[in-house]
Design goal:
The protein is mainly α. Helices cover 57% and strands 6% of the residues. The structure holds fe (ii) ion (2 copies).
Length: 357
């Protein structure tokens, strides 16, 4: 949490700290809504988010009207100049609801907002739930960008989002339950990617991947596991009904394509790249692209494989409805056990309630 926010909440009673954080969360929620639909040169920022000494160095504007009564913006704080929280408080006291930033400064400001979000202390269930939901939504936003065009810049944002997840998980054990509850309620590849990253991080932590950097790498592998699908023709990706043999052959190349997209990217660790390359290898040697068997497959890839299968089975898809965790585990045990690592499977079952199917 930023110092200013700490200062402003430090001396309050617990109830008013809760209220302050709920206000801040509402402001962040609003901010994300604003940035998802910027229609002009400037983007509105709820003023509570400017009440900190850690606001990034961007120009801030206030809304006004020009001589013809058209909406306009006047500069409040020029980039490079000191912003005092007293000035911002004065605006709040005068009923100002928003400051405005240039559209081009949105990425920089969003990074700051994400930090505030992740570092916000846990004060109430509402804040926790909202915090994790917002983080997940921002991850889905980043995945939209990555799937539109998997550039190194977009991937770097993905790396930052996974950092946020892992940070939250390490710091706040309660986030674990909330992340679990969020990981399977989705419909599309983007949400699937975020769900797989979430499941992979949680399973990794359960099986002894305790180092923060390693968990981040595992999450990145999960997030990007299907990135190679961006190189598969959309006719194949979106085809209703089963793929024919030649289409299937192209589809199966997505793990190799994914590895090729990432292989020279310094922001992505080697084991995350291996997870992308090997997530369709199967422990009995019948998978692709190489046909590796159990001991040859990297642990991060094995974790990603289970997270992937589990997320797919427990999610509504165009051709099947979501299964309960129990039914998913039963199906994996009965029909798909050749694909997965048995010990990891047991750990996954324990995470979701401890009952074996
Ligand atoms: Fe895949
Ligand atoms: Fe997948």
């Amino acid at each position: 949490m930023s110092n200013a926010l700490k200062k402003s909440t430090g001396s309050m009673t617990p109830e008013s700290t809760v209220a302050a954080n709920e206000k801040l969360i509402a402001a962040i929620d609003k901010y994300y809504a604003n940035t998802s639909q910027i229609k002009s040169s400037h983007c509105a920022v709820p003023i509570e988010l400017a009440l900190s000494e850690e606001v990034p160095d961007v120009s801030l504007f206030l809304a006004t009207t020009d001589s013809k009564n058209h909406p306009a913006y006047k500069i409040f704080r020029e980039e490079g100049l000191y912003l005092s929280t007293v000035e911002v408080q004065a605006l709040i006291d005068n009923g100002v609801k928003n400051v405005y930033i240039l559209r081009s400064d949105v990425p920089k400001f969003t990074q700051y907002v994400e930090r505030v979000l992740v570092e916000m202390p846990t004060t109430s269930p509402m804040v926790d739930q909202k915090k994790v939901t917002l983080l997940r939504d921002s991850a889905i936003g980043v995945m939209t960008e990555i799937f539109a065009s998997p550039t190194p810049e977009a991937i770097e944002k993905g790396v930052k989002v996974v950092n946020g997840f892992v940070y939250l998980l390490m710091k706040d054990p309660k986030a674990y339950d909330i992340l679990l509850s969020l990981s399977s309620h989705d419909h599309y590849t983007l949400q699937h990617s975020v769900g797989v990253a979430t499941n992979a991080i949680i399973l990794g932590k359960k099986v002894g991947v305790n180092d923060e950097a390693a968990l981040i790498e595992l999450g990145i592998g999960g997030l990007l596991h299907d990135i190679g699908k961006t190189k598969v023709p959309t006719e194949i990706i979106n085809k209703k009904g089963p793929l024919d043999e030649s289409e299937w052959a192209v589809m199966k190349q997505h793990s190799l394509f994914g590895y090729e997209i990432l292989k020279d990217n310094p922001n992505v660790g080697m084991r995350a790249k291996l997870a992308v390359l090997q997530h369709h290898e199967e422990t009995n040697g019948t998978g692709y692209p190489v046909g590796l068997s159990g001991p040859q497959i990297d642990l991060f890839a094995k974790v990603t494989t289970i997270a992937d299968i589990y997320n797919a089975l427990t999610t509504d898809r165009s051709y099947s409805t979501a299964r309960s965790p129990f039914d998913a585990f039963k199906l994996i045990r009965d029909k798909l056990s050749h694909k997965i690592d048995a010990e990891l499977f047991d750990s996954m079952v324990k995470i979701y309630g401890g009952k074996a199917p």
